[in-house]
Amino acid sequence: MCDDRDDVLHTLPYLKKTDTIVTTVTLIYTERLITMNEELMNTPIERWGAAWQRFMKANYPDEILQLKANGRWEVIPRLIDRESWQMWELLRKQYAAQNPRPKSFSEIAAWEKTRSLIVEHEVMEQVVLQCRE
Fold first, then answer.
1. HEC string of 24-70?
2. Which residues contact 75 (CB under 8 A, 6 or more apart)?
3. Are 46 and 81 in contact (CB under 8 A)?
4. Angle between helices 61-70 and 47-59 (to 10 degrees)
5. Where are the domains of the chain?
6. Nearest CA to 85 among 40, 123, 131, 42?
7. pLDDT, tens digit, for every residue of 48-65?
8. pLDDT tens by residue, 57-88
9. Whose CA is closest to 84, among 129, 30, 22?
10. pLDDT tens per residue, range 99-113
């Protein structure tokens, strides 16, 4: 049954146009990927990415040579920065939803400090302090 269906597909008159469309989509995808890489490489390595590089130097120095050879040593920290900031925003919102902000100044200061410590710890543990290849 599958063989019969293959024969029908091979006789379709639009096979050449399909190849052209696939090629066009591939080129568009490739151009978009190049643009995304250029965008990524134009952004500086920020706080979370630098922390990841320090973590890798301290714990996985043998992996760094391979990452540099593959060109990923400069890419991964930028991706970590992006992922960390997204997680940071999400966790801040979740903490605020679960723990309503108090009214008095001293309670607000303690609430802000607690939220900051919890969010920073989670981001470091779940995103930054991970060996990536």
1. HHHHHHHHHHHHHHHHHHHCCCCHHHHHHHHHHHHHCHHHHHHHHHH
2. 37, 40, 41
3. yes
4. 120
5. 1-42, 45-133
6. 123
7. 999 999 999 999 999 999
8. 999 999 999 989 888 888 899 999 999 999 99
9. 129
10. 999 999 999 999 999
Q: How far apart are CA 84 and CA 79, in angstroms?
A: 8
Element (H, E) at 11: none
Contacts 24+ apart (CB under 8 A), 31-38: 37/75
State the virtual CA torsion across 10, 15, 19, 21 in degrees, nearest 10: -130
Rg (CA), the chain: 24
**What Å distances lie between residue 24 and 18, 19, 28, 45, 62, CA to CA?**
10, 9, 6, 34, 41
CB atoms within 10 A of CB 81: 23
The arithmetic mean of pLDDT across residues 111-119, rounded, is 95
